[in-house]
Amino acid sequence: MQILPFLEENGLYKQFRLDEPWDxxxxxxxxxxxxxxxxxxxxxxxxxxxxxLAVVGKGFMFEGDKGxxxxxxxxxxxxxxxxxxxxxxxxxxxxxxxxxxxxxxRPLAGLGHxxxxxxxxxxxxxxxxxxxxxxxxxxxxxxxxINGGEPINAGQY
Length: 157
What we know:
By secondary structure, this protein is an alpha+beta fold. Helices cover 11% and strands 17% of the residues.
């Protein structure tokens, strides 16, 4: 929700009561007003549902509810994933503080079925790139970390 003013949705942002839960009686009425930018054109989801989820995990762009400054991304913003296109069954109500959490035992859980053979990812440099569902799990993890120091080539994903 905090990104709304940067998406030319300041009017909608001002209508939210940030001192109330995301699903309070007042805020719940705003769920149907989800901006189109949150809608996945490739997957028809229920109204108010989004499958673009922030990546959360230790050493990633978002660690719990903590964000990062770009200066902290020493692996390079072009090599660091911030948001993933999750499978439809992982879609969440767009205002709900629910993200995609990395699972080391199942590194691609909930990903890879949005399109044939993969999913899109938003990188810290603002680019969106397609990630193959057959990406090596170690390479994928390297793309999630902000300062792991792993070398990455675009051809690896």
